[in-house]
Amino acid sequence: MSTSLLGPAEIRALAERAGVRPTKTLGQNFVLDAGTVRKIVRQADVGPGERVVEVGPGLGSLTLGLLEADADVVAVEIDPVLARLLPGTVAEHVPGLTAAQADDVDGSPVVVLRDADGRDRLTVVLRDALEVRELPGKPPVALVANLPYNVSVPVLLTFLERFDSLERALVMVQAEVADRLAAPPGSRTYGVPSAKAAWYTHARRTATVGRSVFWPVPNVDSALVRLDRREPPSTTAAREEVFAVVDAAFAQRRKMLRPALASLAGSADAAQAALVAAGVDPQARGERLDIEAFARIAEHLASPAGAGPGGPGTVEP
C-alpha cells in the first residue's frame, strides 16, 4: 500500500481550503519538508504494525510519514477543525482505507480509518492531550510527535506517566527544551525537565531541525529528542514524593539543598537530617544530583505522600 507525503504547496492549499490559520496559542507550526518527516520516523525506529500515538498531528505531515512506515497511528488533536480534516487527508493519500464505527473514549469523539485487513490504521481522538487518560485500541508502544512548543514538556511527561506501554518516544521540540530534557546532572541546562524525564527514560538529543522546514517559520530553532523507557529508580518513595523533592530543589536555582528543602521537610534541620541520611551533602545544589539521589532524599523526608507540587508536568520557571 503506497503512501504519498504532503508537500509545501499542498499543505498551504489544504489549510486555505479548510480556513486553517496556524495559531501561536496552540503552538502550531506545521512541517513542510518530507525529508524531515522521514528523519523523525526513522529515528523513532517505527516498525510495521506498531501502534504509535501522535500528539498534535496538525495537517497530517507526520501522520502520513508514520503510515508510510506501516505503523498504526492514534492521533490526539485538540483543534476540532484539524481533527475533522485529518481523516479526509489521510484517506486521499493512503489508498484502501475506509471509515469504521468507533465509540467515544472518555467522552472524546473518535474517528477510525480501517484497511481491508481489518487494521485500524488511523484513529483520531479529539481531546486536549493533557486530559487524555485512556486511548482506544491496543496500547501504543511509541510516542512520535512534533509537540506544540508551549506544552511540550507537560505533554511528554504526562504520557510517560499515564501510558507505561510506551517503550520509546521521539519528539520534536524547541531546541532549548531538547537541551533540558537530555541534560546530565551538573550541566548548565540540567533542571526539572531533565530530572523528571530521567525517572522514566534515557534521553538524548539526536538532531537539530532548521526553522525553514516549518510553516509559519518559528523564531526559535527546533531539535529531535529520543527517549527510551527505563526502570525508575529502586525506591520506597512514591513518584509524587520524588518529584516534590525535585520541584523544591529547583524552585530557586543555585540554592543549597538544606534551605531549598526546608519547607518540604518542615524545617532546615529536618532537611539536613534527611540529606545526610540519603548520603547527600546538605550544601550541594540540586543541579548536581541525579534522579537516584532525589529518590533517596524523598525516602528520608518525613513528609506525607504527594507533598509539594510534584505533578508530572511541573517545570521550572
Automatic annotation (TrEMBL):
Keywords: Cytoplasm, Methyltransferase, RNA-binding, rRNA processing, S-adenosyl-L-methionine, Transferase. S-adenosyl-L-methionine binds at N29, V31, G56, E77, D128, N146. The keyword Nucleotide-binding does not apply. It catalyses: adenosine(1518)/adenosine(1519) in 16S rRNA + 4 S-adenosyl-L-methionine = N(6)-dimethyladenosine(1518)/N(6)-dimethyladenosine(1519) in 16S rRNA + 4 S-adenosyl-L-homocysteine + 4 H(+). It comes from the Bacteria. GO terms for cellular component: cytosol. Residues 36-231 form the Ribosomal RNA adenine methylase transferase N-terminal domain. Transmembrane segments: none annotated. It holds the Pfam family RrnaAD. GO terms for molecular function: 16S rRNA (adenine(1518)-N(6)/adenine(1519)-N(6))-dimethyltransferase activity; RNA binding. InterPro entries: KsgA/Erm, rRNA_Ade_diMease-like_C, rRNA_Ade_Mease_Trfase_CS, rRNA_Ade_methylase_Trfase_N, rRNA_adenine_dimethylase, SAM-dependent_MTases_sf. NCBIfam families: ksgA (TIGR00755). Specifically dimethylates two adjacent adenosines (A1518 and A1519) in the loop of a conserved hairpin near the 3'-end of 16S rRNA in the 30S particle. May play a critical role in biogenesis of 30S subunits. Belongs to the class I-like SAM-binding methyltransferase superfamily. rRNA adenine N(6)-methyltransferase family. RsmA subfamily. This is Ribosomal RNA small subunit methyltransferase A. It comes from Cellulomonas algicola.
